[in-house]
Amino acid sequence: MKTQHRVTPRYFLLVAMIATLSLLASSSWAQPATPAHPGSLPPPQTTGDVPSVPSAPSPLIVYPSNQPVPFTRIQLRPRASERYIVWIDRAESQRPEINPMYDQSDVMGLDLKTNQPIVVSDAPGVQTEPDVSGPIVVWQDMSHSCATCEADILGKNLDTGQSFTVAAGPDADGSVDHAHPAIAGKNVAWLELNKTTSSLKVKNLDTGAVKVLATTPRNSGISFNPPAMSDEYIIWSEVPPFNEANFGANIAQLRAYRISDGKMMTVAKDAIVGGGYAVADHRVIWSNSQLNLADLGTGTTSVLYRGDAITPAIGGNTVVWSILNPNTDKLDVWGLDLRNLKPLPLVTDIGNKRNPVVAGDQLVWQNDGGVGNGHVTNISVAGALATAPNRLVSMSKQTPTPQATNKPAVTGATTRNSSYKGMFGAVWVTYNGWGYSDRDNSAIRALGADRNSPYFGSVEVLNSEMNYTTGGATPVPGQYGAWGPRVANAMRFYQENNSYKVIARLDPTGLIGENNSGYKPDDVAQEVLLFAGWRNWLRNIEVEAEPNEVWPLNCSACSWPGSLVYTWNGRRDYRMYLAINDFYYAVWDSLYYYETNCSYAPNNNCQYLRYYSYWSPSMDPDYNPLTDGQPQFGDMAGMVNLYGGASRSALGGISYNVYPNPARDGTGGHLPNTTWVDFTWNQQYWIDHYALPSQISEFGWTPGYMNDPHDPNNPGCGITQYMRWPAYSGIQGCSALDRVDHYFQTDLNYFLTSAERHNATSVAVWILRGWSDKADGIDGSGNKRQWLIDYQNSSP
Questions:
Q1: Among 39, 128, 346, 548, which residue has the fewest nearby CB atoms (within 10 Å)?
Q2: Which is it for the CA torsion 618, 619, 622, 625, positive or negative?
Q3: Left, alpha or beta for 743 (phi > 0: left; psi -120 to 50: alpha)?
Q4: Distance separating alpha carbons of residues 529 and 595, to the nearest angstrom
């Protein structure tokens, strides 16, 4: 008789305020309330596997400061050994100006042998980022052991209950921050930051000996991503200084240290090896455009899965990871047994399934949405693998059959373009990295001056471009009439005469600094205020862009007047995003102060702010979660809620960038919204139901893939946005994932007309000109690329 595996998920729910954990089986489990949204739109509720949809979603609002603060608790980032599961248990404030980091975060656990809950640490303040090996748990403690110390590494033996300190306080090197611990056996590794250096260290808990594995000056631009460990190896990735002019130079290395003899080795070099990685004994897995396996004992490598694998993990012979399901735009858990190498869908129900790990014979993951929302869940690995073929059959019925994708035909321009048909209208010519005015008029003509009618329903430009010349004159006698003589004239004509959307992106004002030494939120507000005086006709402004790329790679005691003190080490450190959240929340607050305390006298710039819609800064997308297990916008919920839900007549929203490519993301002849996974389930719900306005500030094929494959310092697929992306390429990792030829205009048209746009009010296609030949719609001689011609004349 064939054994039937009954897959019964279990959910771990911390009862707030008394730190008591209840383990509930699905047969008797009652759906907990979804965390309330700070507004009148009800949060997504579930009945079975189907979310309810409100008939009339309402705008978001924030809680007034005189109201009590509602809290909920969520469970994040599980880690596991054979016997124990541990996770972050965080108190989430529903008033956005109160950041989760400043409330309470505990480390909780479950003993799989006794089925008993464990309080690992519920000390005051923030305990976060746990890891476990055998009975020993280590975690990051934020209780500040000294005046200049940010994070310490603490530990506890769950068998004996003994607590201990791994790394704390300033040492001989003046260290002030110890973060992102990993443990295997009696060795603990972590990242350390002091005033001059960033380091990766390892400590033996038996001997107390500490060894520095890697170090770099803080101002080098090099960063280390958090370590992962087995009893045999420590692995981490080293990321070079970001090179915007040459994306191919951003080659990260996956490094390994053999514990037995101290041998260092490079496992892989890849432009996006900064993605997920894990190690078990001498087997290393990592994700770029595919999931790879390296056996460090034999030196062999292989590909386990072709596609973007998020947060891969390995335990025994089981490998698990999350993928973006093209049918649902949600994260599912997939996995395979290394003995048969067959990838299978293991968890596919409603909501996002994040951060899967293997705990002995159990599969564990973090629920974001759907049944078990906000809770860590586990099921039998054997049961999940046994029932996976049924899910695979069900999914295959939904997946569109790939069709040959031919070059798009020009359909003829529409008389009225939808606002979401947008362009990032860089209207300068770049020579040797310096911007000049549009001397050949090609950019302004490409926006519609050649026919005196816009080709696009929206356009985004830098505020610094507004004073560039266009070659036109004003009033009418000029060559292009109202399209000149300055870009500002053209943009005003674009907006006022056609009721189209113009977004000005504010250039970065400066850099945040340590001990109040850098720029501050009011500097940004003053820049907007000055801009409003010059451009009082404008209606939309994006308050800077990509602070997670522009801000310092690491920072110790960063602050601005009146703020808390922030420390982070690397671009995936969740603490950077908490600082970004608070900074741009304060920017909005300053702008609102000037707006509501304005005399509205003549020549007072503040009077124009009431007409401005403020859009949050877009982020450099990262499809992997932050170090606390949250997606990017999960740790910036306050900023998201404020820009998208504040009670102003000129309502703005959230900005984000989308950069898919056929080699990593091709699905059925199309491309998905790869940045969608950077939002939480609730944020996705609000965007999809028009309660959270959004705009896509940049859309294009991934720049890092469009490089010269023959240049060892600039590897890539040798593709540009005006070329065919081949179904089958002679370059490893460059064939379209769905084995269908792709053209940029076809991918773009599908994105604009399908659910992948997710109600974005505008999609600014990157880019008109002046950035790189790989993506420019206009070449160096002023001629339009075919994709731009097709896009000008497409509908939408």
A1: 548
A2: negative
A3: beta
A4: 10
CA angle 77, 80, 81 (to 5 degrees): 165
Residue type, 449: A
Q: What is the per-residue pLDDT across 484-523, written as a single tens digit (0 to 9) for each?
A: 788 888 899 889 877 799 999 998 777 888 888 889 999 9
Rounded Cα distance between 526 and 464, Å, is: 15
* Alpha-carbon span 718 to 300, nearest angstrom: 27
Whether the Cβ atoms of residue 238 and residue 214 lie closer than 8 Å to each other: yes
2.50.20, 1.20.120, 1.10.150, 2.120.10: CATH of 10-198+277-398:
2.120.10
Where are any strands of DSSP class E within 81-151? 84-93, 104-111, 116-121, 127-133, 136-141
Pick the CATH number of 421-707+745-792 from 3.40.720, 1.10.357, 3.20.20, 2.40.128: 3.20.20
> What share of the chain has pLDDT > 70, as a percent?
79
For residue 9, give both structure tokens: 């998920």
3-state secondary structure of 428: coil
Backbone φ, ψ for residue 370 (5° rounding) = 75, -165
Cα separation of 362 and 179, whole Å? Answer: 28
**Cβ atoms of residues 613 and 651 within 8 Å:** yes
Q: What is the strand order of the sheet 187-193 is part of? A: 177-184, 187-193, 197-204, 210-217
Highest mean pLDDT among 407-421, 481-495, 685-699: 685-699
Q: Kindly report whether the global pTM for this prediction surpasses the value 0.70.
A: yes
pLDDT tens readout for residues 249-272? 557 889 999 999 999 999 988 755
Are 179 and 191 in contact by the 8 Å Cβ rule? The answer is: yes
The helix or strand, by DSSP H or E, that contains position 548, with its residue range, turns out to be helix 547-550
Residues of the chain within CATH 3.20.20 domain(s) are: 421-707+745-792
Cβ partners under 8 Å of residue 153, min gap 6: 138, 139, 140, 141, 165, 166, 167, 168, 178, 179, 181, 188, 190
- Cα separations (Å) of 499 from 417, 491, 581? 10, 11, 32
- Cα separation, 491 vs 42, whole angstroms: 38
pLDDT tens profile 114-147: 989 999 999 988 899 999 999 999 999 988 766 6
Shortest CA distance to 631 belongs to which of 430, 388, 354, 390? Answer: 354
Residue 170: Cβ-neighbour burial (10 angstroms; 0-12, 13-18, 19+): middle
- The tokens describing 610, both together, are 């009431």
Identify the residue whose tokens are 């603060």: 69
From-to residues of CATH 2.120.10 in the chain: 10-198+277-398
Q: Give the Cα separation of 293 and 287 in Å (integer).
A: 9
Tokens coding 241: 């200084």
Question: Sorting pLDDT into bands at 50, 70 and 90, what band is 289?
Answer: confident
Secondary structure E strands in 527-642 = 540-542, 554-558, 566-569, 613-615
* 696: phi then psi, degrees, rounded to nearest 5: -100, 110
Q: Can you read off the two tokens belonging to residue 364?
A: 């564990």
